[in-house]
Design goal:
NCS2 family permease, 2 strands
Amino acid sequence: MDGKIVHYPLFKKQDIDAFFALFQNNLANFVIIAVTLLGMGFPASIVFGQVIPGAAVAVLAGNLYYAHSAKRLAQKEGRIDVTALSYGISTPVMFVFLFGVTLPAYTLTNDPELAWRIAVAAAFLSGLIECVVSFAGKWVRKNIPRPAMLGALAGVALTFVAGEMLFATLEMPMIGILVLGIILLGFIGKVSMPFNIPSSLFAIVIGTLLAFLLGQHSAGNITEGLSNVGFYPLLPTLAAFDGMVYLFTGLIGLLAVLVPITIYNAIETMNNVEAMAVEGDEYDVRECQAVDGAGTMIGALFGGIFPTTVYIASVGSKWMGAGRGYSILNGIVYAAAAMFGLIAAMAEIIPVAVIAPILVFVGISMVSTAFQNNHTKYYPAVAIAMLPYFANYIMTNFQGDAGDIVQELSTGIIPLGEGAMFTGIVLGAVTAFITDKHFGKAAIFSLIGALLSFLGFMHASELQVAAAPDFMAGYLLLAGLFSYYYLRQEKAVQRETLDTLPSEKTKIS
C-alpha cells in the first residue's frame, strides 16, 4: 500500500504441499483424458504426442503468468502471504470436451487425426470466446451475489471434485482410507509427518508402496508405464486452423456445445477468483478470464484440446500457506513430464486411489469456503446454488440405459443438470435477493433465467430458439410474482415518505 518493496519469496516449504495438490489435480485429469481418448480409439501418438504436450504448454504459460501476478499483488499490497492462483483444466469442461466435442467429431469423421484437429479448433475458438467475454468480467462479478457464485462453485466442488474423488479413493479401501487419513491429519489437523515430509508427498509414497505390497498394483504397471517414456517435443501446429474449416461446415452443430461451456468456463474462473478474494487475495477477474482464454489458445497451437481455467484448488493452496513457487514448479515439472512421457508413466504407476484423497481435501475446502465466507442468512442461497450440479453429475456419468433409468426416476433431473452453472447462479441469486428483500433484483434474475431457458443455455440439451418453453414460462411467472412484491414495497416506501412530510413542515414552522 505504501509502496515499500517487500521480499516475496520465490519458493517456500508450504509450496511443496500445494505443488503436489495442483500437480496431482492436473495429473488425475490427464489420467482420465489419456484413458478415455485411448478407449475411444485415438492412437497413443496423438494422445501422448499431441494432446498431453499441448495441454502442458497451456499449463506452463498460465502457471508462470499467475506466479507473476502473485508477485505483482504482493508488491502492490506490501505483504508476503499472497498465494498464486492455481491453473489447470476444469473437470466439468474436460468431460464436455471429451464427450460433447471430441467423441462426436470422431464418430462423424471416423478419422482420429481429423477428429483431433476439429477438437483443437474447438479449443482455440473457446479460448478466443473467453477473451471476448472477459470484458464483462468486472460487471458480472459486481452484480451477481457472492452466495450465488460461491454456491454454484461449491456444487462443482462437492460433486466432480470431492465426491468423484472420494469414490475413486474407496476403489482401494485399505489404501485409500489410510491415504485420506494422512491427508486430513496433515492439512486439517496440522500434524507433522515423519521427518517433516510434506503430507501429500508422504501420502503418495505410502499409498503407492502399499498398493504394490498388497498386490493392488504389480510390476506390470511399472513396465507398462515405462513403455510410454520417450521424447515428445513441444512443437507448434496449425491443426486449429485446419480443423476450423470442418468446425464451421459439417460439424457446426458442435458450436451449440462450445458456446455455453465456454461461458461456463469464464464464470468458473470468475467464481474461483471471487473465492480467493474472500480469502484475502484479490485479483482482477477480467485479466484472469483473458489469461485463461489466451492460455487455452496457446495450448491449442501446440495440439491441446481442452480449455484451461483458474482452478478450484486455489483456495486449498491458500489454506496450505503457499506462495508462488508451487505454481512455477507445477508448470515446469508438467512441461518436462509431458515432453519425456513421464505423465503417462506416473499415471500407470501411481494408483488413482492414492492421488484422489488430496483432491477430496481440495473439494471440501472449496465447499467450506462457500459457507464460511457468507453470512449465515445466505446459507439457503449457497445450498440451492449447489443443487443443480447433483443433477449435472448424474447426467455426465450415467449415459445410455442408465440415462433412461435416471429419466424414469424423475423427469426433472436431466433439465436441471443442463446448464447447471447458469441454473445454480440464477437460483442462488434469486434466493440471496429474497433474503435481503430486494424483490426488484430477484425479478431481474428471474427474467435472466427465462431468457437463458428460451435460448437453451439452461434446461435444454442444445441452443435454439424456444429451447425450454415450460421453464421459460416458469421464470416469467416468478418474475411477475417478485415484481408484484417490489411494487408493493415501493408503494409502502412512498407512503412512509409522505407521512413524514407534514411533521417536517411543522418543525420548520
